[in-house]
TrEMBL record:
InterPro entries: Calcineurin-like_PHP, LpxH-like, Metallo-depent_PP-like
Gene3D superfamilies: 3.60.21.10
UniProt organism field: Sphingobium cyanobacteriorum
UniProt keywords, alphabetically: Cell inner membrane, Cell membrane, Hydrolase, Manganese, Membrane, Metal-binding
Catalytic activity, EC: 3.6.1.54
Name of this chain's protein: UDP-2,3-diacylglucosamine diphosphatase
Source lineage: Bacteria, Pseudomonadati, Pseudomonadota, Alphaproteobacteria, Sphingomonadales
Pfam families: Metallophos
Record has Lipid metabolism as a keyword: no
Top EC class, one word: hydrolase
Length: 290
């Protein structure tokens, strides 16, 4: 996982043997995947990284896209209306995809639970589900759900306390400011809260416990694996014989889970992908100039 995928340099392909980098399936300029999972976009909040998500959507295609919850943050919108044009752009891009034949499955989470009342219905080609079973190209069955279903099993609700924490909110705001400054300085995106999260012992133990609970519950339902979101922590690992996948978020991590044509799964860290692309573009320009 975390493999940085990028376009090969001119000449690299001709040499054939060079497989240091894996070259993704591409369709024109867009990468093509069998399936894509994204969640925790939190449209309607300042923390939402719509620009990064738009770049992602403009560079990838898939047969199926799963929107795994917390797409729109109804909780925050109710308190304070915030809806910049870029958030509309995200919604339109997703609707356009459905219209053009991509299967779009929307599984509302806890922040967009107001859409759960429409379970079983379809709007503009977007299917609304409570959960889904995805069959991979190589025949594995994956249970797809947001993940807040396990908050009650998680007894202490420690993550919700952490996510709702004023310190976390401040950190996210700081993240926006720091990255605006970094962008102006020509530096790549950098996740402040991601770093902080890995340093906070409680958060680390919460995350691993959540992952174990979800994998255990999926195993009890007879599937090979589970795909969820909710805790804003992208991951793919095996827990007690069950494949655990988390597609992360588009607030700070800016990650997506993808399935390749052969059923291989990968977590894409989009900030890294953009950095790699820009590096390649610079290298290409340097070669052209030489
Ligand atoms: Mn959630």
């Amino acid at each position: 996982m975390n493999a940085i995928t990028r376009l090969p340099f001119p000449g690299e392909l001709d040499e054939g043997a060079d497989d240091r980098f894996h070259i993704p399936e591409r369709e024109g300029q867009r990468r093509r995947y069998r399936s894509i999972w994204i969640s925790d976009i939190h449209l309607g909040t300042r923390g939402c990284n719509a620009a990064m998500l738009i770049d992602f959507l403009d560079n990838v295609d898939s047969d199926t896209i799963y929107l795994v919850g917390d797409i729109i943050d109804g909780w925050r919108l109710k308190k304070r209306f915030y809806w910049p044009a870029s958030h509309n752009d995200v919604v339109w891009r997703l609707m356009k995809r459905a219209k053009r034949g991509t299967r779009v499955v929307y599984i509302p989470g806890n922040h967009d639970e107001m859409f759960r009342q429409f379970t079983g219905m379809s709007f503009g080609g977007v299917e609304i589900r409570r959960k889904a079973i995805h069959t991979t190209a190589d025949g594995r069955k994956l249970l797809v759900l947001h993940g807040d279903e396990f908050d009650t099993i998680m007894l202490a609700h420690r993550w919700l306390a952490f996510v709702g924490d004023a310190a976390y909110t401040t950190l996210m705001r700081l993240n926006v400011v720091v990255n605006a400054v970094r962008q102006r300085m020509g530096l790549p995106y950098w996740s402040l809260s991601k770093m902080a999260k890995h340093k906070v012992k409680n958060a680390v133990s919460f995350i691993s416990r959540f992952e174990e609970v979800v994998a255990h519950e999926a195993g009890a339902r007879g599937v090979d694996g589970v795909v969820c979101g909710h805790i804003h922590n992208a991951e793919m690992r095996e827990i007690a014989g069950i494949e655990y996948y988390n597609d992360g978020d588009w607030v700070e991590g800016c990650t997506a889970l993808v399935e390749h044509g052969d059923g291989r799964m990968e977590v894409l860290h989009w900030a890294d992908e953009i950095a790699a692309r820009e590096r390649d573009e610079r290298a290409m320009q340097a070669r052209m100039a030489a």
